[in-house]
């Protein structure tokens, strides 16, 4: 690993931070995602679409455009932001990359009308356990009585438009919530007052996922916070770090895997190893499990079009190679029994495939022990 602040660190050689969304049910996690990507998955879900894990990539250009009203002089050093759509905190627990958390930063969503709720505290405990940085989105500010909508406005600007009563209610609720966090051993502060950024005090961004107030602030804060506090972690490395999110059959492509490429680069044709498992019944109704690494070659590297989610149906873009961080669909032979939650390994020119197979199976064991425990 590089020395902190090593002079040869190349700021242009950063990967995109990976962000996930956590919080109590109904705080607006899905709506916030919809709001930042300008789609409407939540209404679709009500229509019976199953919850899956997806990822959305926001290029820096998009973030720059949406945050320009904030007149932030900070230049964006990361190429973009990859947001994982985590339905609840199970996926945060299961999404691991070689033993550590997959996410660089989390958005912990709190409903300003409800304050901290049981799953907020569960999420907090997970974040603490993993030592994961997070920001608090204090959502549903538009529900403050008498709120005047300022669509997609930066929060300070929106707050200035509000009556004294609304501002008073906001401050009262904010103070209560800061106290609730303190009771959990967490210091929080409104982000624009939290000059120190990081380490001891976590930032709160007031948002509305319905009318968009505070969304520019949230996007900018995610990028600024990660750039400032985790340059080392975000420094691009040649070693591939990649986690399998889902295994699924896609018409015309056979069994595919959806992965998050956390670091490194993948190429079409790369020889890869993923964990596999097969179950069958014997004539005596005893279940047998057969575990084994799958060795195959990448046939195609696919991504959805920018700003669309991995799970939204449609055409894919084909790539000769992809650099981290990205959500990618991979097609190859032999994925039928691949296992989600495990790592994908690339067999490099100097690697012994047997060593890599062994590493994959070690990873497999850790996944199995997590399943046993739950
Ligand atoms: P999740 O369970 O955390 O994913 O919550 P959802 O995104 O499904 O939102 C729960 C409910 O709260 C839905 O009816 C949303 O329309 C509503 N909601 C979410 N965010 C906001 C917001 O910022 N303001 C208001 N007024 N309602 C919101």
From TrEMBL:
<comment type="similarity">
    <text>Belongs to the TRAFAC class translation factor GTPase superfamily. Classic translation factor GTPase family. IF-2 subfamily.</text>
</comment>
<protein>
    <recommendedName>
        <fullName>Eukaryotic translation initiation factor 5B</fullName>
    </recommendedName>
</protein>
<feature type="domain" description="Tr-type G">
    <location>
        <begin position="14"/>
        <end position="231"/>
    </location>
</feature>
